[in-house]
Amino acid sequence: MKLRRGTKEAAALLMALSLALTACGGGDNKENAPSGSASPGGDGASSPAAGEAVELGVTWWGPDARHEATKAALDIYTKQNPNVKFKPEFMAWDAFWQKLPTLVASKSVPDVLQMDAAYIQDYVSRGVMEDLSDIDLTGIVPDNILENVKIDGKLYGIPLSHNAQGLAYNKPDLEAAGIELPKQGWTWEEYFQWARDAKKKLPEDKYPIGDPANAWDWFQWYQASQGKGAIMSDGGKTFNLDKDLFVKFHDELNALRQEKVLPPPDTSLAFLENDPQADPMASGKVMTRGATVGSVAALEQLMPGKVAVVNVPNGPSGGGWAQSTIFLGVSATSKHKEEAKKFVKWFITDSEGGKALGLTRGIPINEAIYKELEPTLEAKDKISKALADVAAEKAMPFYSAGPGFTEWVDFYKTTMEAVMFGQKSVEDAYDEINKLGQDIAAKQK
Amino acid sequence: MTARSARRRAKKRIDWSGYVFISPWLVGFLLLTLWPIGQSFYLSFTDYSLLSEPVWVGLDNYARMFGSDPTFRKSLSVTFAFVLFSVPLKLLFSLLVAMLLSRNLRGMNAYRTAIYFPSLIGGSIAVAALWRNMFGKDGYVNHVLAWFGIEGTGWISNPDTALGTLILLNTWQFGSTMVIFLAGLKQIPQELYESASVDGANPVRKFFHITLPMLSPVMFFNLILGIIGSFQMFTASFVITPRGGPMQSTYVYAVFLYEKAFKHYQMGYASALAWILLVIVAVLTVLNFLASRYWVFYETDGGKSK
């Protein structure tokens, strides 16, 4: 009897203990969340002097350099405006676009968020973005750019920088091989011919150009340069993939692949841009590749002093694109809209903040800020600027994949890979890719 | 009356105290497991982009899967091929290594640790990146092959070899399976081997007539876990052959599901895919349990299963 009582007590003690332990473990998680979100209130109580204390959530994507620069800029803002504190959340591109929809679904989008041209229409149409048209940006952002980025006549994101698409090439290697350098303003015909000529002077395992068959945007540039405009337009409701141009473009690529001017497909698919070993250009295997203002800076760091730039091959309507593609917007559900609007304007106007941010989001949209930065630019910044300049000459608008078309982009890639490996004809590929595009467009109506 | 209700209350309190004790787990289970599962079942009948409210579409998602989505069939066939080859290979290989490691040699613990180690890190992104470089067109594997005058292909960028390479990686992560086999081997009574030796049985015979039957419950356990694990294979396909690449030759079901949910924002369709995966794995497990009657031997049954 006594023994039984003893074991009972011991058992009860053990259970209570384990309960206490697990409760602690669970409590940690549960308590953290509310205390985190409650902290602005707490802060406000402890520092009532500086007017209305607010905490703004800020989220963006980007590489490490951008994270550090942005955090420094936020600190500067807090120093200038002691009542505003920030709760920054930053991540890589993929993670950002995975997380944002869940934040929208749970109605907890941070007050200030970075936006991309490829997605902004989608989010505006879902009512996520606050209308910022009343922010006065005269003299800060050129009027034509401002008009260009408006959606249905309203401004939903402050454009942050100039972005552009061009072509980077390996200058010293081309010169060493005695190959004529790419010519600014070249046409697609000249581009393909240049590749054929260059291949004759290159060793067997080096290639003048990469294989763009599975990248939908290359064909978009081609189609637009020939005057046939966007593949996806009208908010994803219209789909226009020009059959004649598609067949012509991909037949030419097939021919180049057979002539070994393009790398074999298993080499092409192993390339990984901006990876030190696997980047097509940094690995020394391919002499040219497509680059944007941001990516050309990364490339320059991988192969210092070797990168030069030229514009994307032209057609009658132009070549490549130049436009603002990164925006800063305010959440429609923000509780501190006025403070958030004040901050996004500050982000492109303050010279101290501008210095901290540097060129981490491309060439600053605000000419005054860029002029201040100019004397301090590094090689990677200069090549970015050079790319923006060469691209601007004949630039066309930026055509993004329409809302709901990410699936189509992936389908284009895999279908064209089958063509690259010779397992599918260009005509069949066109039919399949066109059908899916038409289906998606029909669904959006 | 009051006495009875008091007693009833007392009785009730006793009932509830148990639940109170398990409440930390129970609350977690209900909120974080059961509720999301129920939610996903509901969502599988909707069109839900995360950005707007779900719209009820009935069986449309399931109809699309079986009717008009070639990617569904493609990913399913890739996954089945992966399971079909990787599970037996891994079982065979880990049993082999377990047999080697069950011997009593000096320093065996060091060998065991060294051999088990890869599986601790095998599923990680870092190792996936390492494999990507090793099996690339200019990777070490092709360098070694070049010594013998063989020109290798881009193992992971060629649609003919990519899945095979991933199966190899999966086999290499044999550690946990091997440890379970090792424990199973240690459980087999030595007397059986001794008496077999007295009767003049050779090692091969001993293996097939003692080791395999005695190990069959462990084998069964590893088989079930292996099948479930292989159906959920994700990291390798996502990282080594980015997003199930070249030409979707490694586009396994989990990657397909993930992309539908978080890249194409088709939560409803992705939920339906998840439920179909559950059904497939459940059916295979039941089939395995049924089949196990014919080949799994439990000592406690006194050989009844034979």
From TrEMBL, chain B:
The keyword Protein biosynthesis does not apply. It is found in: Cell membrane. Residues 76-288 form the ABC transmembrane type-1 domain. InterPro entries: ABC_transporter_permease, MetI-like, MetI-like_sf. Pfam families: BPD_transp_1 (PF00528). GO terms for cellular component: plasma membrane. One of its GO terms (biological process) is transmembrane transport. Keywords: Cell membrane, Membrane, Transmembrane, Transmembrane helix, Transport. The chain crosses the membrane at residues 16-37, 78-101, 113-131, 162-185, 215-240, 272-296. It is a multi-pass membrane protein. Belongs to the binding-protein-dependent transport system permease family. This is Sugar ABC transporter permease. It comes from Cohnella thailandensis.
